[in-house]
Amino acid sequence: MNAPAHSALELEIAQLVIDTLNLEDLAAADIPPSQPLFGDGLGLDSVDALELALALQKHYDIRIASDDKDARHHFASVASLAAFVASQRAVCAD
Amino acid sequence: MSEAQLATRRHWSAQRERGNLLLMRFTAFVARNCGRRLLSPLLHLIVLYFFLTGRRARHSISEYLERLAAWSGRSDLRPTPRRVFAQFMAFADCLLDRLDVWRGALRLEQVRLLDSDGLRAQLLATRHGGRGQLLVGTHLGNLDVCRALAELGEQVPLNVLVHTHHVAHLNRLLGEAGEQRMRLIQVSELDAALMLDLSQRLERGEWLAMAGDRVPLHDGRRVTVDFLGRPAAFAQGPWLLAGLLGCPVNLMCCLKIDSRYEIRLERFLDTPAWQRGQRDATIAGWAQRYADRLAQWCLLAPQQWFNFYPYWESTDA
């Protein structure tokens, strides 16, 4: 399979997804950055999202505001999560 | 009336929210200004009024006694008008005791602590570092046990998770009553920010408490379990939180036995976790085990079941 190339952050986040949700039969490189995490893609649900959100916030020392209307968009795929984490870390570094 | 409207009307929050707030204000006022002797006849009259006018509440208690008697095989628990009325009176008595708790007149020394798992020691230990834990309470008996627990825990902060929208107001009332260690946090819905907040509180050694025997109205996260021999909806919330936060879960209840309060604390889950794909089944298993424990506690104090609304999945609709 010719998976699209991952950035370092994308690989790291894919691994975090796997570790957090105990997806032992997957490797980070197996999750294409643009594959949807929910529904038809990786098949995560809303409780997985909470688990993942908690892990991301702890791991990267970022905050996901409860009134953030874009949260659904951020959690769409590994690529969008990586973009979100990068932007949040930039904000926190300021 | 549509089914949804009917469900809303039948739900506990529809009838208790306003009453509770008024009652707490009233209780706080009376607690500051007068005593139990003055309030007792008045409160019993109020409860008599609720008994006479509250057809649904009467039916609900009657249904509860019927189930409890059938499940336990104890025909002496079967509902009679006298026993149903006694349930309302037990509630009045409980409210008066809450008033004493608020006034500080009910001292910790008067309460018997049944804590075979040594949870109080763990509570106290978090003053010197370590992670907090989750306490799951019940509307069987006196819920103000939380306040007593805040006292048991001395300086350990206790966060009570509630569904009410009146949190700011109630926190102000708590503050006026001089309560520093107990805080109410509204959890209408679990989200990322709330999870982080709760997780950080646990890391700081704070404890969380919530009721396990009421389902929130607008939260679909519920699970049907067998309670006293019939299917009833229980909240998934406490068990979801436990699994997400990965903290030990303990059960607590405070029953008045032979006119003396007994606080029961017991370990329920050491390290809650689920296998992905087994999550729903795991949570259903925990909820069922909780309902089983609750049923056993009901037999210790049958009259102190204070859920005055239809509890089981409708058989009368």
UniProtKB/TrEMBL annotation, chain A:
SUPFAM superfamilies: ACP-like (SSF47336). InterPro entries: ACP-like_sf, PP-bd_ACP. It holds the Pfam family PP-binding. It comes from the Bacteria. Residues 7-89 form the Carrier domain. This is Acyl carrier protein. The lineage of its organism: Bacteria, Pseudomonadati, Pseudomonadota, Gammaproteobacteria, Lysobacterales.
